[in-house]
Specification:
The protein is mainly alpha-helical. Helices cover about 65% and strands about 0% of the residues. The chain contains 4 helices and no strands. The chain is flat.
Length: about 80
C-alpha cells in the first residue's frame, strides 16, 4: 500500500481507538499530522500566557521542523499502529 494511503488509513484509525490517548500522545499525533500535511510550522508562537493549548501545539509542531512529509507520515502511521496494539 502506498504511503499516502497508509497515512489516510492511520488518520481514520486514530479516530476509532479503543482508548483515548493521553495529552502527550495527542500532541505527537497533532504535530506529526501537521508536519505531514503542511510542512514546517510558520508564524509566531502564541504569546498569550493563558493560551496553554495552542502554545503546546505550536511547540510540538515546531519541534519537528525540517522533517520531511514522508517521514512524518511514517511516524504517524507507526504511532497509530502502536496505539492500536
Amino acid at each position: 500500500m502506498e504511503l499516502k494511503a497508509q497515512f489516510e488509513k492511520a488518520i481514520t484509525d486514530s479516530k476509532s481507538l479503543t482508548e483515548k490517548p493521553g495529552n502527550d500522545i495527542l500532541l505527537q499525533l497533532y504535530s506529526l499530522y501537521k508536519q505531514s500535511t503542511e510542512g514546517d510550522v510558520s508564524g509566531e508562537a502564541p504569546t498569550n500566557p493563558f493560551d496553554f493549548v495552542n502554545k503546546a501545539k505550536y511547540d510540538a509542531w515546531s519541534s519537528l521542523k525540517g522533517m520531511t512529509s514522508e517521514a512524518g507520515m511514517q511516524q504517524y502511521i507507526d504511532l497509530v499502529n502502536k496505539l492500536k496494539g
